[in-house]
Amino acid sequence: MDKIIIRKAVLSDMETLLRFEQGVINAERPFDPTLKGDPNYYYDIGAMIAASHIELLVVETSNEIIGSGYARIDRSEPYLRHEQHAYFGFMYVDPAHRGKGVNKMIVDALEQWSLSQGITEMRLEVYVGNAAAISAYEKVGFVKHMTEMRKGLIKE
Fold first, then answer.
1. What are phi and psi of 154, to 5 degrees?
2. What does each C-alpha distance from 156 to 34, 36, 41, 44, 47 come to in angstroms?
3. Is the dihedral of CA 95, 138, 87, 53 positive or negative?
4. Per-block average pLDDT, block size 10, for the chain (156 residues)?
5. Cis omega (within 30 of 0) for bond into 30
6. Are 126 and 88 contacting, i.e. CB atoms less than 8 angstroms apart?
């Protein structure tokens, strides 16, 4: 792989980031029967780029964006030891570049940004059936912590 650059996302990255967002949604759709049909969007990417409490990064090689991820500083529940934590999301690597350590590069960079903001706890959500994502996050140090459960009250 050519030289890798990790940088803050900018508005001119929007077309690629919108495509990545659909990649995330399509990857998660089999695990969540409650997701709306298309068109569907998870993020306000423009607002994320502008926000001071969010670090939205892209990974670039050969002038092509191949991955993304963000860390957002969130207020933690009052019963926890840490007042704030970094919530990770929008973790996406172009399929042609998976298995090359790109996800780890994103997580490492977001970890450093989180530490620079005085944050000592990182959290993310992943569907329990998404074994590939769980494995990728475990490889970079995340551990299973809690399972959120749901029950639909009408036939889906």
1. -130, 155
2. 8, 12, 20, 27, 33
3. negative
4. 91 98 96 94 97 98 97 97 97 95 96 98 96 94 93 84
5. no
6. no
Helices (H), 29-127: 45-50, 102-116
> Residue 5 — φ and ψ, nearest 5°?
-120, 130
- Structure-block tokens of residue 141: 């140090």
Burial label for 154, CB within 10 Å (0-12, 13-18, 19+), is: exposed
Under 8 Å between Cβ of 41 and 82: no
- Close Cβ partners of 25 (under 8 Å, ≥ 6 residues apart): 35, 40, 41, 42
